[in-house]
């Protein structure tokens, strides 16, 4: 239930995403971000707000743990649109520092499967990655990576 406790606090975020999330040849763009994550409901909820200052955008993720199913639901909303995206659902693999979360969405009018992968959560530099599949999961396009570095505490 406390799987996202690693993420509490303030972070600098190095983002890298594809210009077109379904075209692996569309070229990568890199840009900075900042994030702050908080814990709620004794660890069964986690909220983070992320800002992309060079993009003039950001968003918020609400993560909720279902103890009966022993899984998390991750819910993302973009500040740009105010739209809550369909959730991804999954869990962490015990002792690995890795969690996989999947769901259904659309991109550019196409139905896609979405996969979020959290890794290195047992280190001081966690990573989040996003993948899309437009062919029912036969193939995946890795289209976004966030590498997190903990911000120094204010003195």
Summarize this structure briefly.
Helix content is 0%, strand content 59%. By secondary structure, the chain is an all-beta fold.
Structure, described:
This protein has 155 residues and is mostly beta strands. The chain contains no helices and ten strands. A ten-stranded antiparallel β-barrel has the order 1-2-3-4-5-6-7-8-9-10. The N and C termini lie far apart (32 Å).
List keywords for this structure.
155 residues; mainly beta; 10 strands; 0% helix; globular
Number of helices: 0
Tell me the span between the first and last alpha carbons.
32 Å
Write down the secondary-structure element order. Answer: EEEEEEEEEE
Average pLDDT, all residues: 95
Trace the largest sheet across and list its strands: 1-2-3-4-5-6-7-8-9-10
Radius of gyration: 15 Å
Query: Structural class of the helices, strands and pairings?
Result: mainly beta
Instruction: Find the count of extended strands (DSSP E, 2+ residues).
Output: 10
Helical residue percent? under 10%
| Largest sheet properties | 10 strands, antiparallel, barrel
The percent range for strand residues is over 45%
């Amino acid at each position: 239930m406390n799987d996202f406790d690693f993420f509490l606090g303030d972070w600098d975020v190095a983002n890298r995403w594809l210009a077109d999330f379904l075209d692996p040849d569309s070229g990568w763009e890199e840009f900075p971000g900042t994030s702050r994550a908080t814990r709620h409901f004794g660890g069964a909820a986690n909220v983070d707000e992320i800002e992309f200052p060079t993009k003039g955008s950001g968003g918020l993720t609400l993560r909720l743990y279902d103890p009966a199913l022993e899984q998390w639901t991750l819910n993302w909303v973009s500040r740009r649109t105010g739209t809550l995206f369909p959730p991804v659902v999954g869990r962490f693999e015990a002792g690995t520092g890795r969690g996989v979360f999947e769901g259904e969405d659309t991109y550019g009018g196409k139905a896609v499967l979405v996969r979020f992968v959290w890794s290195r959560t047992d280190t001081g530099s966690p990573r989040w990655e996003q993948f899309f599949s437009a062919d029912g999961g036969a193939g995946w396009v890795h289209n976004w990576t966030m590498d997190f570095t903990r911000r120094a505490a204010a003195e």
